[in-house]
Design goal:
- It is a single chain.
- By secondary structure, the protein is of the alpha+beta class.
- Helix content is 35%, strand content 14%.
- Strand 1 and strand 2 form a beta hairpin.
- The longest helix is centred in the C-terminal third of the chain and has 23 residues.
């Protein structure tokens, strides 16, 4: 059998783009445009050799809401802490008639 090495796909970072309203100089038309959100995204576009007028295929998704993300992870931390509190006896101590220490 000929075992050929498997080519790994190049790991690409996601590009973060922001929607802006811009005017096309030739027509004066006001349109929406996707511009790089940060210096990092600009650098990624240069590394990928993207130039003005290039047509690209992409999957568009909205960026996650950081407030909601923090809330969900704080809730997950509380749920992870809950069994530890039960083992330490902190929950049983608040129940009337329950022994303080086993």
């Amino acid at each position: 059998m000929n075992a050929q090495p498997v080519k790994r796909k190049k790991d690409r970072r996601a590009l973060y783009l922001r929607v802006h309203r811009v005017v096309i100089p030739e027509t004066g038309e006001l349109v929406g445009a996707l511009l790089p959100e940060s210096v990092i995204s600009q650098r990624e576009m240069r590394e990928r050799a993207l130039k003005t007028g290039d047509v690209v295929r992409c999957e568009l998704r909205k960026k996650r809401n950081p407030k909601y993300w923090r809330l969900v992870h704080a809730l997950g931390g509380l749920l992870a802490e809950f069994p530890r509190r039960i083992r330490r006896g902190l929950i049983e101590a608040s129940v009337p008639g329950a022994p303080l220490h086993s």
